[in-house]
């Protein structure tokens, strides 16, 4: 009998001590209940309880936790049905409140987040909801954080992971984007053609202007050349007439006559010439010849006069002959 | 069957089993009970005349003494301070820091922006945008005072 009592005593001692000495791991806090009523919270490390009276109530995880928000269908303001899922990051700051203020913590958080996702997305258009994730996240966080305060929680982050519109809507969006890009490409191409045409026209215009300018310049220079020629002729004529004025008309007659005869020679010497053309006053030639004769005669006379003058100069002291 | 129990062997067995359990099951504290069992084994080895009830009482006394002795005397002296005493205490980590009020403190309650989230604060009424210093924390609420500068 004593042996049984002894064994029970040993067992009791072991069980008692196992119940009395509790090691709370880091990252957790355990609530202590005295006859079922919460009294205090055990921090990480070794703690001693009074067995029978006190027991461990809830073991609360004090680390930041990630709670996935399951995918749900949400209707946006413009009546598009989208699938939305996300994650919540939260941390328990008050173990007792988290243990006793709310009966199923995770379920409560999820319900809050899911209903608020509906609220926030329901007030947005689809395009807005796809592009303003940060706004959605901030709004969700504000509401959920506020609501979870009484449970001793701090919501640090709520992130929407995926917003998935239905297949046909995604296709339509892709089509829209493609059309947008095709439009842009076409516009760019047309713009290119237009610019090319404009450039070509500009080039043609420039070429025509240049060629016109060239012609103008050329005709200017032609005119100048003619002017110079006329000037030269005028000068030549002036010189000739000056020469005539100073000399004898017969000098001109000589030139004219030689030209006249040259022309006549050309006429006569032309090949295949059946008909011989003669100027109407063929006698003019003879006249010109007479002009040459006249010229010769006058020049001979002049020479004789010169000889006489030189003879008189050679005899100094001689009085000039009396007329 | 019980004859074998009146020897020092069962105590060694108990000591070893408890030691193994200590290694396997964290969260329980069995090393001191195991030590007490080993001590009883040693005493029984020296005094084989001790009866089983005596041994049991001796074990109970030694186990309680070792545990409470460690708890009350050894632990405070050899307890290594954590180099991260504020681990998992998000609120306490903010004590002494300065933050800007995101909404005015009215009737002693307002909100301050900490990182990218907001914390409830309690303190003297202050306008939006004023800087506050965290004095303490109560659950999810920070106790603050006006901080000049």
From TrEMBL, chain A:
Its main location: membrane. It is a single-pass membrane protein. InterPro entries: Band7/mec-2_domain, Band_7, Band_7/SPFH_dom_sf, Stomatin_HflK_fam. Residues 19-177 form the Band domain. Pfam families: Band_7. Residues 304-323 are annotated as: Disordered. Signal peptide: none annotated. One of its GO terms (cellular component) is side of membrane. It is found in: Membrane. PANTHER family: STOMATIN-LIKE PROTEIN 2, MITOCHONDRIAL. Belongs to the band 7/mec-2 family. This is SPFH/Band 7/PHB domain protein.
């Amino acid at each position: 009998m004593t042996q049984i009592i002894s064994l029970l005593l040993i067992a009791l001692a072991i069980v008692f001590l196992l119940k009395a000495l509790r090691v709370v791991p880091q990252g957790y806090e355990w609530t202590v209940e005295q006859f079922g009523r919460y009294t205090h919270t055990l921090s990480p490390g070794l703690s001693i309880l009074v067995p029978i009276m006190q027991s461990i109530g809830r073991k609360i995880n004090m680390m930041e936790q990630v709670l996935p928000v399951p995918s749900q269908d949400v209707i946006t303001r413009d009546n598009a049905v989208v699938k939305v899922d996300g994650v919540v990051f939260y941390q328990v700051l008050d173990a007792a409140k988290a243990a006793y203020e709310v009966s199923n913590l995770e379920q409560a958080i999820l319900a809050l987040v899911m209903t608020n996702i509906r609220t926030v997305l329901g007030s947005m258009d689809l395009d807005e909801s796809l592009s303003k994730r940060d706004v959605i996240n901030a709004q969700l966080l504000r509401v959920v954080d506020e609501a979870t305060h009484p449970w001793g929680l701090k919501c640090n982050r709520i992130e929407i992971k995926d917003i998935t519109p239905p297949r046909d809507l995604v296709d339509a969006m892709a089509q829209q984007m493609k059309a947008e890009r095709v439009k842009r490409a076409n516009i760019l191409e047309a713009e290119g053609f237009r610019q090319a045409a404009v450039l070509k026209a500009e080039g043609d215009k420039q070429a025509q202007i240049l060629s016109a300018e060239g012609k103008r310049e050329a005709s200017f220079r032609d005119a100048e050349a003619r002017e110079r020629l006329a000037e030269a002729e005028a000068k030549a004529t002036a010189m000739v007439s000056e020469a005539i004025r100073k000399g004898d008309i017969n000098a001109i007659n000589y030139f004219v006559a030689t030209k006249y005869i040259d022309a006549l020679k050309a006429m006569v010497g032309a090949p295949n010439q059946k008909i011989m053309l003669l100027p109407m006053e063929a006698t003019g030639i003879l006249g010109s010849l007479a002009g040459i004769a006249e010229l010769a005669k006058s020049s001979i006379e002049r020479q004789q006069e010169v000889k006489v003058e030189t003879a008189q100069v050679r005899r100094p002291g001689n009085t000039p002959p009396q007329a | 069957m019980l004859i074998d129990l009146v020897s020092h062997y069962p105590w060694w067995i108990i000591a070893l089993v408890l030691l193994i359990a200590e290694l396997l099951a964290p969260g329980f504290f069995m090393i001191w009970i195991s030590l007490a069992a080993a001590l009883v084994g040693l005493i029984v080895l020296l005094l084989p005349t001790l009866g089983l009830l005596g041994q049991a009482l001796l074990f109970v006394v030694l186990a309680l003494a070792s545990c409470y002795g460690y708890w009350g005397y050894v632990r405070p002296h050899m307890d290594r301070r954590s180099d991260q005493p504020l681990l998992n205490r998000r609120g306490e980590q903010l004590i002494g820091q300065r933050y800007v009020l995101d909404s005015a403190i009215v009737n002693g309650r307002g909100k301050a922006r900490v990182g990218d989230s907001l914390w409830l604060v309690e303190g003297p009424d202050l306008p939006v945008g004023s800087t506050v210093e965290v004095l303490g924390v109560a659950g999810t609420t920070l106790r603050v005072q006006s901080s000049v500068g």
